[in-house]
Fold:
Amino acid sequence: MDSAEYERKIAHRFAAFDQDGNDYIDRADFNAAAARLLTEFGTKARCDKGQALYTGAEAFWQGMAGIADVDGDQRVTREEFVGGAVKRLRDNPGRFAEIARPFLRAAIAVAGSTETDGSTVATVAAVERALRVLGAEEDVASTAAGSLDTDGDGTIAEADVVAAVAAYFTVIEPDA
Ligand code: CA
Ligand code: CA
Structure:
């Protein structure tokens, strides 16, 4: 992979976190993501699902800051993202899954439903909507949501989303 391709892939991942587009990742981006999801799915912030989503967003931010905010200014710059989030997590993808899981679980609950075992599941269409409201382009959201439905039953389980998100942010590979 040439450096231009690598830079482009990193830029996409950075932009996915930088929800307000001000060129750094901070707590406000995670809160913005939570707010967008709640609005899209008509869920109030002041309910169990809404609170779980904000709690998950805060945990995700704290985890991201712990890994990538090298200078401790409560902002993750592009340089910090590349050096910390991408390089360090590449060696430990399980760590990313761990910090992202509470947010993803809560997001899927907002978009879908909670199973009796506490895990969450959503339809392919709902996951596509969630990805679009978080800034993914239409075709990207559609392709990504479709590929998450590995058994083709029209629904996507929490574990599949966590694994896919962890892989997306920790494994930067050339296009096939
Ligand atoms: Ca931002
Ligand atoms: Ca920083």
Observations:
- The chain has a mean pLDDT of 91.
- The first strand starts at residue 113 and ends at 114.
- The chain has one domain: 3-170.
- Residues 3-170 form a domain with the Recoverin; domain 1 fold (CATH 1.10.238.10).
